[in-house]
Amino acid sequence: MPRYELEGQVAIVTGAGRGIGRAIARRLAREGCRVTVADLDEATAAVVAAEINQEGGESQALAVDVTSKEAADGMVRRTTDRWGSLNILVNNAGIGAVATLLDTDEATWDAMMNVNAKGVLLCSQAAARQMIEQGNGGRIINNASGAGKIAPGKAVPLGAYAASKHAVVAVTKQMGLELAEHGILVNCVCAGIVDTPMWDLIDREIATMQGVPVGSVKEQAVAGVPLGRIQQPEDVANVVAFLASDDASYMAGQTYNVSGGLLPY
After folding, report:
1. More exposed terminus of the chain, fewer Cβ within 10 Å: N or C?
2. Burial, 105: exposed, middle or buried (Cβ in 10 Å; 0-12, 13-18, 19+)?
3. Cα–Cα distance between 45 and 202 in angstroms, integer?
């Protein structure tokens, strides 16, 4: 059952073909939103859109490269062409790479920054311009990750990823201040150890680097979570739904930890 008054609102969720993005898209649809399921992989986006439609929601799947201004603008245009407006943007698209900063090559660094940081900027610009034109405010919610708050550390070499997610936090804070006068509230969520394909990848690559069994890296990470369990994508989606609602109408430019107590600040 819906918890918030989001009936009839229009949302875009990037990177929504799997994992956290899928959970967010489905949750917003259950809240009554019409949802554009955007992903670089159109096939996975189509699966999620079909799931939403089969559950009685309304959605469309779009293939979107968030690193392209043309694609970001087109995503917003195709959404408003179909439903007439845009109320919520969730910047969730992201990629990861396991490497120490000393071993990080230019291609890896550029990929992290292009998808995780520039993608947030381009999609937010496109959405914000539409929301300003509408004149009714809106919500931009960024998935910044716990790596946007603290360095993952020597045992989890995700330096370039962390740098890109710290950039997301900075963009959130600055854009939150710039857009508040338009009633557009920009906030972000910082998740912890989430049970997603990305963490499976991190686990496999670090296990290979360290010569330990696959699964042991993630197991050790989860052991440090105060709540004592791995985070589910739905745990993140719950907070995104709240930030999209009127209950969060006095929150702007903030980062919210959704980490089971893992993040210290």
Report:
1. N
2. exposed
3. 23
**265 residues of the chain, pLDDT tens digit each:** 567 789 999 999 999 999 999 999 999 999 999 999 999 999 999 999 999 999 999 999 999 999 999 999 999 999 999 999 999 999 999 999 999 999 999 999 999 999 999 999 999 999 999 999 999 999 999 999 999 999 888 888 999 999 999 999 999 999 999 999 999 999 999 999 999 888 888 889 888 888 898 989 888 888 888 999 999 999 999 999 999 999 999 999 999 999 999 888 8
Answer yes or no: 250 catalytic. no
Both structure tokens of 193: 């150890």
Structural domains present in the chain: 10-192+232-257 (3.40.50.720), 195-230 (no CATH)
For residue 102 the two structure tokens come to 């000393």
Exactly one of 4, 161, 256, 265 is catalytic; name it: 161
Structure tokens at 212: 């330990």
Give the C-alpha separation, 35 to 61, whole Å: 9
